[in-house]
Protein: histidine kinase
Amino acid sequence: MRQAEELNQIELLIGAMLGMFVLALGVIFFFLAYQRRILRQQKEYQQKEQEYQRQLLRSNLLSQEKERNRIGQDLHDEIGALLTTSKLYFRHLAQDSSKKTFDDLKLRVFDLLESTIASVRRVSHDLRPVVLENLGLEAAVASIRDQLNISGLIKVNFDCDLKGEVSREYQLNWYRIIQELVNNTIKHANADSIELELFGDGDKLSLKYADNGVGMKESDQRNGLGFSNIESRLSLMNGELVFNETNSGLSLNLSSNTMKNLLTDE
Structure:
């Protein structure tokens, strides 16, 4: 009887040990499978991040090339043509010309030179807006608002509360971002109003942007050169772009640092 009880205890012990062994194997296999899953997800995330960075770089290069082509075309079509015409007039400014002919040609040359100077100023303004250079980001965005409101094509409301300093590089990036957003609304949204709210606390700068246009499909939000350019500029400032859900129109939240952090932005 006692031997039977001991055998039963041994069998129970062996069964328990086998159960614990199987359980341990199950835990090990589960852990290994979980680790493989985590590694696979990390690899997929890294691949997506690398592809996203490549897309941003490509968009940035395309944007730069587009801007160079536009400036080159402006220089060729406007300034080049004006200077060529001025050269032709100078050829006819002979000393033996009548005073009336000489004075007439001189006035035409002066008019052409004035037009050339105005064209050069416009091109240089596009490269680095004078109002941004002299008065800062708030005044530059207010200038965009005023120009659009005067045109009567669209109503722009702009609220701003900037505290602290924003680096010149970041001011230019934000100015270009706002220009791109406004241009997208005018070209594609069929909107009649834009709301701009720009805030800064010295460390972070945030923009709330909204229009009452036709909105965007979710599949189109990250596509297109315009928003790729915006995300590319934001990535240079450790910033982010968030599309808000809305029944109509477009609603965005954008944010970034106010100046480069040498420890994190390299």
About this structure: Residues 2-91 form the longest helix (90 residues). The domain at 137-257 is CATH 3.30.565.10 (Heat Shock Protein 90).
